[in-house]
Design brief:
The two termini are 58 Å apart. The strands form seven sheets. Strands 19, 20, 21, 22, 23, 24, 25, 26 and 27 form a nine-stranded mixed sheet that branches. The chain has a six-stranded parallel sheet with strand order 3-2-6-7-1-8, with helices on both faces. Strands 15-10-16-17-9-18 form a six-stranded parallel sheet. With 1021 residues, it is an alpha/beta fold. β6, α10 and β7 form a beta-alpha-beta unit. The longest helix is centred in the last third of the chain and has 27 residues. It binds iron/sulfur cluster. Iron/sulfur cluster binds next to α33.
């Protein structure tokens, strides 16, 4: 029998389930929980508790034991799943059965996307035939998309067949096996041995999980607690489908009398009324606060300041406080800041193996094998400065650092001989011989054996044990080292098994490829740590708050695009395709599911607070406050946002950094100078900028000066000139008005700009020789030879003009660039075979002498655009423009916002009478692929890669740009705003992450003068 308990927000039925479970014998019942934390909590009560995966395993074992002797199936890891798919896709490609995916299949990330799609399709419980039938009934598909569907179905069929043939299964396969075994058991008249099962902490189940629950409920009592209230559909979007499904065959039980959670009136009001259609605003009590801060840095500081003050006053214990964020990676500086303020944080019980010092030591060894020249030397420097070297080799890492700083080594052998001479470390000499003996190419098994042997040779557990006995490291440090060694060895034994089922397991790889595979596998393994501190505050992601309970909760990052955070689902099918597929009975997860999940996480964060909930955010021109802030405000009549400043007076400073800033702001230069020589001078200018002193804030207000600046700026604009103003007006002022050049990278290495110019020149020459041609696979060898020759010639030209220094390092770097071009050529041939687009021009300049004016009228002013379009392709009468990027490419959402180049070039191409410009995009040279390109809707689908047709409108909403006229209007609006700000003299420094790198204005803009010095001191930074 299936019993469904709908749990309203803020309630926790765990105790009810514990009581029920304890009425049965231990082995007759099980509690199935959504997280290890809830499993642990139940086990503390003496109840058998497992996750859903463990339940599926137990079901399979029980059923197969009754149905036959045994069912021999093995679960494969995600890595093995990807390797199997790689084999299948390679084979289908060779047989010419994947024309749609052909050009994409070799790209980095494709196999991962394919594996994730297979998992999503598998979780629907669909068979290969069902998928094919659904696709066959999908109306309105273009021929290209029909081909894509056919290929997805084919890959899925082959993949399932492979798993069945080899008696192996992936995660959805495990659920499928469990459901099939249960059905077979029931048919054979058997039954499971449990009397009652309790499911808790889940807000949704996928189709296969639902099938298992339904089948189990035919053999025993199954209780499911689902967060759901029928009157609040807006809050329970994530649970809606699961509720509907369960209600087809469940008995809805009345909620047992659960004592009301002890919350303040305002917090009770939030959990009862958020997204309720009947909500009525009430006066707020001090239990709820909303803070607005200037930026992320101040947001974290304001929260930690307050926590620190409370801990000092002993008004609350650290373990009664939670700091919650939507995604931990957005707040990576939080732990360091906690240390700065002396706020204890609960150490994590587990961490990725890849992040452990032991694994990093192993990875650093492998890194030294494949490289050459300066890169190899750098890898040896990184290896010899690993924190564990003091234990492993007894090496003085300070001496190594000193040597590396004093000399620019391009040959690792001379570096090592200097290290040996200075340190006299004999162990290093022996270890080096072992590393030199690692083969450049070997099988996965051989590499794992060698790496395992090297790790054993370090004798890390024994050495850590001795240091612990001598009192040099803590017991926790010793245990974590031993544990990491054991897990790394276990990974080295398991990895060859992942490859056992696929071709690459039998082939040789180079050491870099092996290191990458090992690193990836270690990233997926977690290491159980022995935390030093269980008494600190909890720092948690919002996804981990099911039934959490704290006296005080601070929720940070409540701003658009951060919380709520909407993840893009697998790109192979977009959201509208997913809607169609759901209607055809294949419910793949979509962004809409993400919205439902996100509000569930937010509600959990609110419900976790008993006495005080503080919601914080900062807003900037990119993102406003989260819509959740508005929703909370609407629940109260008098709740107001407190605009907080993290600025403190000298006497109130709670950390060294706060003290430095406070001294700087109050002009106490003597005290600053005593803390650190030179700090006072830096702080003086910082203070002036903070106070927005005229003459220091980048906003000239003298009319004559403004006119001169305006003349200097002129009416001619390139995309980079406009983009510089868009990103930082002060940098624009220094670059285009003061005419200062970007800081050049020092050293023998080629800087990114030079490298980009070199690659552009090579591609210009190569494509220039093949205008209008289709490149064929059969010509590959010949084309590559031609490309190599052009590359060598261009390198020589650059060297002759002093554009590069042909030293040892360049020799190595040159070969890396050659490889990059080879990868580009492979992609280019594949793209060429995919469609009718052929290059018709390269490096086409516009807006300069003799090549046609491109004018744009903006609010009565005419400006002239100039630039150079890397490449134009043509198909029929339509044109497509391409910009090559050797570094990162702008994102789709940046189009016509921070990315002005692409829309400007599209406009320029159209103005220069190139006919019908269908779209354009970026070609990433480092990834050897075309990124999602802008296409006008009419032309969408005419290029065989991902496209989009939208830009932000005046209200910041995303809207389709239907034709060139609309694109021109968008440009007039966006550029009009920039020109207006320039005219008014707005040249304020606008800091962004790492903006000071190569910025000619970094030394004068006074951007975080003090903090930058601090960051430079960080030896790990
Ligand atoms: S360092 Fe950053 S804030 Fe300063 S001028 Fe350069 S880009 Fe602007």
């Amino acid at each position: 029998m299936l019993h469904l308990l709908c749990v309203p927000s803020g309630s926790d039925l765990s105790d009810t389930f514990y009581q029920k479970a304890l009425q049965h014998k231990f082995e007759e019942t099980m509690l199935v929980a959504s997280s290890e934390a809830l499993v642990g909590k139940a086990r503390m009560q003496g109840i058998r508790a497992v996750t859903f995966d463990a339940l599926a395993n137990a079901v399979t074992e029980q059923c197969s034991a009754q149905l036959r002797d045994s069912l021999v199936v093995r679960k494969i890891s995600r890595k093995a799943q990807e390797l199997i798919l790689q084999d299948i896709i390679d084979r289908l490609l060779q047989e010419g059965r994947l024309p749609y995916f052909g050009r994409l299949a070799g790209k980095k990330g494709f196999i991962r996307s394919a594996a994730s799609l297979m998992e999503q399709v598998g979780s629907c419980g669909a068979t290969a035939e069902e998928i094919e039938t659904a696709f066959a009934h999908w109306d309105g598909r273009s021929p290209a998309y029909r081909q894509k569907d056919r290929e997805v179905a084919e890959i899925y069929r082959e993949y399932l067949a492979y798993l069945i043939q080899n008696n192996i299964y992936d995660m959805s396969g495990l659920y499928r096996v469990a459901a099939e075994e249960l059905a077979a058991l029931r048919k054979a008249g058997g039954t499971v041995t449990w009397k009652a099962l309790y499911f808790t902490g889940f807000y949704r189940f996928d189709a296969l999980q639902l099938a298992i629950i339904r089948l189990l409920s035919q053999s025993c009592d199954v209780w499911v607690a689902l967060p759901y209230e029928p009157g609040r559909p807006e809050l329970y979007g994530a649970a809606e489908d699961t509720y509907g499904d369960l209600m087809q065959y469940a008995a809805q039980e009345r909620l047992p009398a659960v004592p009301a959670a002890e919350r303040t009136a305002s917090l009770r009001h939030i959990v009862r009324n958020l997204r309720s259609p009947d909500k009525q605003p009430v006066p707020a009590d001090p239990g709820i606060e909303i803070w607005q801060l200037a930026d992320e840095h101040e947001e974290m500081r304001a929260v930690l300041r307050e926590i620190r003050q409370q801990l000092r006053g002993k008004t609350v214990k650290p373990s009664e406080i939670a700091v919650v964020v939507r995604r931990m990676e957005e707040y990576s500086g939080m732990r360091d800041l906690c240390d700065e303020y002396g706020v204890p944080v609960q150490a994590e019980d587990s961490a990725a193996l890849a992040a452990s010092p032991v694994f990093r030591f192993v990875a650093a060894i492998l890194e030294t094998v494949s490289l050459h020249g300066r890169e190899k030397t750098e890898s040896w420097i990184a290896f010899l400065t690993q924190p564990l070297q003091k234990i492993v080799l007894g090496l003085k890492t300070e001496t190594v650092i000193q040597l590396a700083e004093e000399h620019y080594y391009t040959d690792y052998r001379s570096f090592l001989s200097d290290v040996l001479e200075k340190t006299g470390c004999e162990a290093l000499d022996r270890f080096r011989q072992e590393i030199d003996a690692i083969p450049a190419k070997a099988g996965i098994q051989e590499y794992c054996d060698i790496t395992g042997r090297l790790l054993s040779l370090t004798k890390l557990p024994e050495k850590a044990g001795r240091l612990y006995r001598e009192g040099q490291i803590t017991l926790t440090g010793f245990k974590n080292t031993v544990c990491a060694c054991r897990e790394t060895q276990s990974l080295l034994q398991k990895l060859p098994q992942d490859y056992r089922f696929c071709r690459s397991g039998k082939q040789t790889a180079d050491c870099a490829g092996f290191a990458e595979a090992l690193q990836e596998a270690a990233g997926r393994m977690s290491l159980s740590l022995r935390p030093e501190n269980r008494e600190g505050i909890a720092f948690l992601p919002a996804v981990d708050l099911e039934y959490a309970n704290f006296k005080q909760v601070y929720v940070l990052g409540l701003r658009e695009n951060e919380f709520p955070f909407y993840k893009d689902e697998n790109w192979i099918y977009n959201d509208s395709e997913r809607d169609d597929l759901a209607a055809l009975g294949i419910p793949l997860p979509s962004s809409a599911d993400g919205y439902g999940e996100d509000i569930h996480f937010f509600m959990n964060a609110c419900a976790a607070a008993r006495e005080r909930l503080v919601l914080t955010y900062f807003a900037d021109e990119e993102h406003n406050a989260s819509p959740y802030i508005g929703e909370i405000l609407s629940l109260f009549t008098d709740l107001e946002v407190k605009v907080k400043k993290a600025e403190t007076a000298v006497g109130d400073s709670l950390s060294r950094e706060e003290l430095e800033l406070a001294l700087a702001r109050s002009g106490q230069t003597d005290a600053l100078e005593q803390m650190e020589p030179g700090l006072a001078e830096s702080a003086g200018s910082d203070r002036k900028r903070l106070q927005k002193s005229a003459g220091w804030n980048g906003n000239p207000d003298d009319t004559m000066l403004l006119q001169r600046i305006s003349r200097q700026i002129g009416d001619r604009f390139s995309a980079s000139k406009l983009e510089t103003y868009r990103s930082c007006p002060f940098k624009f002022l220094v670059t285009y008005v003061w005419k200062q050049k970007e800081a050049e990278a020092a050293g023998e290495d080629m800087d990114a700009g030079q490298r980009g110019s070199l690659l552009h020149r090579v591609l210009e020459k190569f494509i220039g020789k093949h205008l209008g041609e289709k490149l064929r696979e059969s010509q590959h060898a010949e084309l590559q030879k031609e490309l190599d020759e052009i590359f060598d010639t261009v390198c020589q030209e650059f060297a002759d003009k002093g554009g590069l220094y042909p030293g040892d390092f360049w020799q190595h770097d040159k070969e890396q660039q050659r490889l990059l071009l080879h990868r580009w050529l492979r992609s280019e041939i594949a793209y060429s075979g995919q469609g009718e687009w052929r290059p018709v021009s390269t490096e086409k300049a516009f807006g300069r002498k003799d090549n046609g004016e491109v004018a744009l009228d903006i609010n009565g002013r005419r400006i002239y655009l100039n630039g150079k379009i890397d490449r134009i392709d043509r198909a029929g009468d339509a044109f497509f423009i391409t910009d090559y990027k050797s570094g990162d490419t702008p994102k789709q959402k940046e189009f016509a916002d921070t990315d002005l180049q692409l829309p400007l070039y599209l406009f320029a191409a159209a103005t220069q009478n190139e006919g019908n410009v269908a779209g354009g995009g970026y070609y990433s040279l480092k990834d050897a692929e075309r990124k999602a390109s802008f296409m006008f809707p009419e032309a969408a689908g005419t290029v065989p890669w991902k496209t989009f047709s939208e830009a932000k409108d005046a209200n910041g909403n995303t809207a389709a740009v239907t034709d060139m006229k609309e694109l021109q209007a968008t440009l007039q609006r966006v550029l009009g705003e920039l020109l207006e700000r320039m005219a008014q003299g707005d040249f304020s420094p606008t800091p962004a992450k790492d903006c000071e790198r190569n910025c000619p204005a970094a030394a004068v803009c006074r951007f975080r003068v003090i903090t930058r010095d601090r960051e430079e001191e960080d030896p790990n930074g």
